[in-house]
């Protein structure tokens, strides 16, 4: 075996890394687009199929329930069969279900297809981010992984623009809207063709020669498998993430992720309804206002990607919970708040939320070892979607009680996220994957054998 004096964790950032980041961003883009376009499609879908309040909630939540299944199941499958094959397969399913939705004739068909769409979306989180994580140098890992997730908000903003463009297509405009994710899925699929398998995953499965070929293809002849000394052949078990020491890491990821996505999905899915409830009506407000708010999630991500490598993961997450919670609380507690102030509050929420939402994929990829990395991201995705699906389903009922009630609930959820992060969060900035994911490692300069300390008896 050839010996070298390099470390892949400290390898130079190359064109390959940048392309892989761009191609991996396709999944989150489609996620943001597909999960947002449903809120706009409901404007014509609801009267076209005479949907009840319950059916509206189910249509909005169906894909989120699918994400729960897709993440929970296919993260583990990705750890078993590999990142490369799943990197392509989930996009085929995503494109096919989007096209089929355009031909639905009953609400149950839409529910089933949106569920399957969600399964494909949920699968892409662990597939794409684990593959990307295992190739990136540590000094840019948080920023590059985070960039893929900031694109989620770009997809959401594009969805509002497409919805606005298709709004005059008559009572069947919703069909075009729900079929449109297929276009982005096909483009992303074509770009991903030819992506090599993760050498870390290959080594974890004992496929040393294949790992060597992948390393030299990406990094050059100066690198070899010896530059990943901590990767060893191990068995993948789904239950590893639910056992010590990883159970506490799983709980931390699931709770903070859930606390971020519940209010975020409520704003995205029912943004037009929220704006109308505060008197902001007409296309300029419902479409234009929603598009601007979606764009502000992207704006928030820009300083967030800088800060994540400057101040670290934990401080960024804590401060974003504080600001986002306050932004939701203000219009909830001020009686008769004017529409402009409500819009400003949503704008602040979008910027602060966008500044740290990408930590949903950064943290689990850094806190778990290669043999269960995709499983951990998938489980985090799945558990977070329980709350987001429930919140999306209940949102129409909350709006019947008044928008302030819905906003107050969102503020309470962000408070939970802050408390859990303050109690259980840890810092992984600047550490190698072997250091951040190892049981018994020291993270953030403090010995933490279980990462989140047990309370003293």
TrEMBL record:
PROSITE patterns in the record: MFS, SUGAR_TRANSPORT_1, SUGAR_TRANSPORT_2
Gene3D superfamilies: MFS general substrate transporter like domains
Predominant localisation class: membrane
TM ranges: 20-44, 56-78, 85-105, 111-132, 144-167, 173-193, 251-271, 291-309, 316-334, 340-363, 375-395, 401-424
Membrane topology: Multi-pass membrane protein
Protein name: MFS transporter
Segments of this protein annotated with the region Disordered: 430-457
Domain Major facilitator superfamily (MFS) profile, chain residue ranges per copy: 20-429
């Amino acid at each position: 075996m050839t010996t070298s004096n390099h470390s892949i964790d400290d390898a130079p950032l190359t064109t390959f890394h940048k392309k892989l980041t761009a191609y991996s961003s396709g999944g989150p883009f489609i996620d943001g687009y597909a999960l947002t376009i449903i809120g706009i499609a409901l404007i014509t879908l609801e009267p076209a199929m005479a949907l009840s309040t319950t059916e509206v909630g189910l249509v909005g939540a169906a894909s989120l329930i699918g994400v729960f299944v897709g993440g929970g199941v296919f993260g583990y499958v990705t750890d078993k069969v590999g990142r490369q094959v799943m990197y392509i397969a989930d996009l085929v399913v995503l494109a096919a279900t989007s096209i089929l939705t355009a031909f639905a004739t009953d609400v149950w068909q839409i529910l089933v297809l949106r569920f399957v769409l969600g399964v494909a979306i949920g699968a892409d989180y662990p597939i794409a981010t684990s593959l990307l994580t295992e190739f990136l140098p540590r000094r840019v890992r948080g920023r590059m992984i985070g960039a893929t997730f900031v694109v989620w908000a770009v997809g959401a903003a594009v969805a509002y623009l497409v919805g606005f463009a298709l709004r005059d297509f008559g009572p069947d405009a919703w069909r075009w809207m729900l079929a449109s994710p297929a276009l982005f899925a096909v483009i992303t699929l074509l770009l991903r063709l030819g992506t090599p398998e993760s050498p870390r995953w290959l080594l974890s499965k004992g496929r040393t020669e294949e790992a060597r070929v992948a390393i030299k293809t990406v990094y050059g002849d100066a690198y070899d498998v010896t530059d990943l000394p901590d990767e060893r052949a191990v068995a993948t078990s789904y239950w590893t993430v639910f056992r010590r020491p990883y159970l506490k890491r799983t709980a931390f990821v699931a709770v903070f992720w859930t606390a971020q996505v519940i209010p975020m999905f409520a704003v995205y899915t029912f943004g037009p309804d929220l704006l109308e409830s505060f008197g902001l009506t007409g296309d300029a407000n419902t479409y234009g206002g929603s598009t601007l708010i979606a764009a502000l999630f992207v704006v928030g991500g820009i300083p967030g990607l800088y800060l994540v490598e400057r101040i670290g993961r934990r401080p960024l997450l804590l401060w974003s919970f504080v600001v986002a919670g306050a932004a939701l609380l203000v219009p909830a507690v001020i009686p008769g708040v004017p529409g402009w102030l409500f819009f400003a509050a949503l704008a602040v929420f979008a910027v602060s939320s966008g500044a740290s939402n990408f930590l949903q994929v950064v943290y689990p990829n850094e806190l778990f070892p290669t043999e269960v990395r995709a499983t951990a991201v998938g489980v985090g995705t799945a558990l977070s979607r329980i709350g987001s699906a429930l919140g999306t389903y209940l949102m129409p009922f909350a709006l019947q009680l008044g928008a302030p009630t819905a906003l107050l609930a969102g503020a309470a959820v962000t408070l939970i996220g802050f408390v859990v992060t303050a109690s259980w969060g840890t810092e992984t900035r600047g550490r190698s994957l072997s250091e951040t994911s190892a049981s018994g490692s020291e993270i953030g300069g403090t010995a933490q054998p279980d990462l989140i300390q047990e309370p003293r008896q």
